[in-house]
Amino acid sequence: MTIRLNRLERFALVLTLLLAALSAGLYFGASGTSDTPDTAPGSNGFGGDFTLQSPTGPLALHDLQGQVVVLMFGYSSCPDVCPTGLANVAAALDQLTPAELEQVQPLFISVDPERDTPERLAQYAPYFHPKIIGLTGDLDALSRIALSYGAFFLKVELQNSALGYAVDHTARIYLLDATGQMRALMDHNAPPALLATALRELLPRSSPEKG
Fold first, then answer.
1. Secondary structure in 3-state letters for the chain
2. CATH code: domain of residue 96
3. Number of domains in the chain
4. Host domain of residue 173
5. In a domain, 1, yes or no
6. Is residue 2 part of a domain?
7. Tens digit of pLDDT for each residue in 13-57?
């Protein structure tokens, strides 16, 4: 079931999320102008464990304990924001050493469950980088997860378009440390070098050097 909101209701929803984020000292939004990561201490109340469907079966965030997680919300038919964000994530990953890359897991959570099946995501996400895993789930689960991360998404019908609809969504890159705590937010168009630096800062210090 898709929840349809009028313009006033949509504005109220976004405003509510922004106020909640600001109360925690953060800004969660669909765009931004700063390249500096916003810190997100684990005590801010945002984030948390979840389980979604990957192309190879269920995947829970707690399954990735010990790895730094790069998280994006989006969908495969997204015309510009998602390709830009995923390309920047991929470029950042390519700047890591093999040992560092082993400790990072990027996730792409689709907010378009009608079209983005696990099979479709299995082709889309790794196109940008082989380590990126695409995840999906039912609308209720996706809505709960998005809300817990201070994100939003909304289906928007398109007139005279072959796509039929688009999905407005938060355009941020979420960085989670090796314990699953959300630690930073970055714009989807943040420079890859800055993203790579932020990832290195979250890597477990005790991890041995390799290669």
1. CCCCCCHHHHHHHHHHHHHHHHHCCCCCCCCCCCCCCEECCHHHCCCCCCEEEECCEEEEHHHHCCCEEEEEEECCCCCCHHHHHHHHHHHHHCCCCHHHHCCEEEEEEECCCCCCCHHHHHHHHHHHCCCCEEEECCHHHHHHHHHHCCCCEEEEECCCCCCCEEEEECCEEEEECCCCCEEEEEECCCCHHHHHHHHHHHCCCCCCCCC
2. 3.40.30.10
3. 1
4. 7-202
5. no
6. no
7. 444 444 344 333 333 333 333 344 444 444 356 899 999 999 999
Q: Does residue 211 lie within any of the structural domains? A: no
Residue type, 57: G
Q: How far is CA 161 from CA 31, 42, 108, 164, 194, in A?
A: 24, 42, 25, 5, 37
Would you say residue 75 lies in a domain? Answer: yes
| Residue in this structure with the two tokens 């994006």, named with its chain if needed | 72
For the question of whether the overall pTM of this predicted structure is more than 0.90, the answer is no
- Express each pLDDT in 125-184 by its tens digit: 999 999 999 999 999 999 999 999 999 999 988 887 777 899 999 999 999 999 999 999
Give me 71's structure tokens.
């998280």
Place of tokens 């948390």: 48
| Cα dist from 201 to 47, 61, 97, whole Å | 19, 20, 14
Tokens of 13: 């929803």
Q: 94: burial class by Cβ within 10 Å (0-12, 13-18, 19+)?
A: exposed
